[in-house]
Amino acid sequence: MKRPRILLADDHREMLESIRAILAPHYEIVGTVADGRALVEAALRLKPDLIVADITMPHLSGIEAARQIKTSLPGIKLLFVTMHSSSVYLTAAFQAGGTGYVLKSSVGGKLLDAVQSVLNGRIYLSPSLLTEHLEQFKDPTRAAAALLRLSMREPAESVKLRGASTEQDEPIQLANSALGAQRHICAFFDSSDEKYRVILPFIKDGFECGHKALHVIDPNLRHEHRQWLASAGIDVDTAEQSGQFELRNWGDVYLRDGRFDQDRMLAQLQELLGGGRHQGFVLTRIIADMEWALEGRHHVNDLLEYEARVNYLWPGCKDVAICVYDLAKFGRHIVNYISRTHPMVLIGGILQENPFFQPPDEFLRELKQRRATRIN
Prior knowledge:
CATH class of the largest domain: Alpha Beta
Order of helices and strands: EHEHEHEHEHEHHEEEHEHHEHHEHEHEEH
Number of domains: 2
Number of strands: 15
Oligomer: single chain
Strand content: 15-25%
Radius of gyration: 21 Å
């Protein structure tokens, strides 16, 4: 009987060899690659039955590579082997077309089971992931339902985001997807290069559409940010002079008087959005780097509550807010909480509805209960 053909991808040689050693006695290993671009090329050339890939790789993430491969080879099966246990990665992996997700810490005991399950058309998650994500919610049924929605998704290229723009409402493109009614987005990136590669087309499109652009960044990175915009062909000076573009330091926006005040910030956000409309702009596209929250001991807790409350402002609002988080700086526990305050998530270069999103009333109630438990 012909053995299934498997292509392996990981930028760590030792892990690649370990995976090969586990699978080679049972399957035909048709090739190994060490970066995302090479993975796309090898998959299109070799057409394996299954790809076993890492997520964080040079040039293209495993998730971006998977999405490109699925466009040309929709029937190919994908299993991710990764160190990332965060729900945001799990979500992105399934939305990109994966049906298996194994943590590297459990490769030795679980990889063969995962490969067999995926090849047989079943979903596979590392058991520890199921436990971890069930524990995120006071109501385990909701977590189970979120995971189930991931397994029932359509191929990424055919997914139409809920509330997608109608013919009367000009569509807004972000990461090769059309934004719908939900426009409060958390964007997770591993590096500055990845961040700009993904969001620069969105930024440039906004200028060309005549939308207002408000960017809130680290004051130490103002020059670098302007250079990135200029590299995309944006005339930054002219846009600033016309009022179409505002570049703000995060301290002036979030940390007036050296402290973060949620109520003041929410009022200021409404003023900023209203100001754009008063200037004659149809909508405002906000991009805000969020590492300012790491500068103070209490800021992170306040940030979680603020991000949840922002959702009260957005029903019916056409403006777009992208909250940018550096995965190298925010811990996994905080990332899991942050992801639950945004109805849309962008990770691995892919935008999708967030199955782990909690409506603000529910999230704030749970957050209050958890804080009360810790105090007692």
